[in-house]
Predict the 3D structure of the following.
Amino acid sequence: MKESKKRRQRETKTKLLRGEETPRNKESVRNSETLGDQEAGKEGRENQGNSPGTLWIVPTPIGNLEDITLRALRTLKEVDKIAAEDTRNTRKLLTHFEIHKPLISYHDHNEKQRSEGITADLEKGVSIALVSDAGMPGISDPGFEVIQRVIEKNLPLEILPGPAAFVNALVGSGLPNGRFVFEGFLSRERKERKKRLEALKEEERTMIFYESPHRMKESLKDMEEIFGPRQAAIARELTKRYEEFIRGSVTALIEGLEKAPLKGEMVLVVAGFRGKKEESFEGLSLEEHLLLLMETGLSKKDAVKKVAKDRGIPKREVYDVGIGFENPPADD
Ligand code: SAM
């Protein structure tokens, strides 16, 4: 095949994947469908000295397979290779969609070295899709290294939109979402975790954490200790059969977990800091202190518990003051 023809074909293929559907590109859809995966791959690998291949960042479902986009499927069908966090997992996904492509591994332990190989391939004109086990690659998943390298080398990079667990969790939490901060996973080490939480103590934006089911209760306990009273939500098994949002104060969530541990994948969303007055009770009467905490969204029970703990007095004493106080309406 002549070099110029090959270059034209490659440019058309990139436009096609970008969704720029000119009539010429539409024609190429048919061509690429009849070309077959192996031919497309061969063309990419032979394209030495011409335009570089694109790295496509392709998000995959976080549970429900119907959440893969048409564009993601088309991209996976048309690239030359797919770099995957776990090739066995990705193979299952691809088989489900009847996509057969060469797979290479790209995970936490080979990111640096693999990034070299991927960029070398891209420079030769090979197009590559990067996928992780679920959701958006690079979001608490491998991807950062190769993306950095591709940007440094000024190679083409395309990010497809798609599932990411934190977005659903934030939106469904019911907590303010105008401003938010994504914290990813907290450290497994308690000391490190508490240090991070201390740094976030006065963070005013809603905070989002990825957390394992085994550590959720411990993390919430650290938050209760460091943040004080806060509203929060656990978003569990998003997009899956047993999807669930558990909303309430951090204290109520801990109590719930003590009664029945939760299984599955989960995201924790926590309200931001509402200002100094929430933290200090100096100069407040017992009644004012209790009311203040209830205004921040704590139930009467949680507020009584917190006031008693803060002041080092028996719960009964606080409870008596609060007789007649109503539970607050749900937080905004
Ligand atoms: N790249 C993914 C994304 O875009 O969301 C995140 C991958 S990270 C290794 C896995 C964590 O994401 C889980 O521990 C959990 O906190 C969260 N997660 C992933 N899928 C989820 C789901 N279906 N429901 C709730 N949380 C989920």
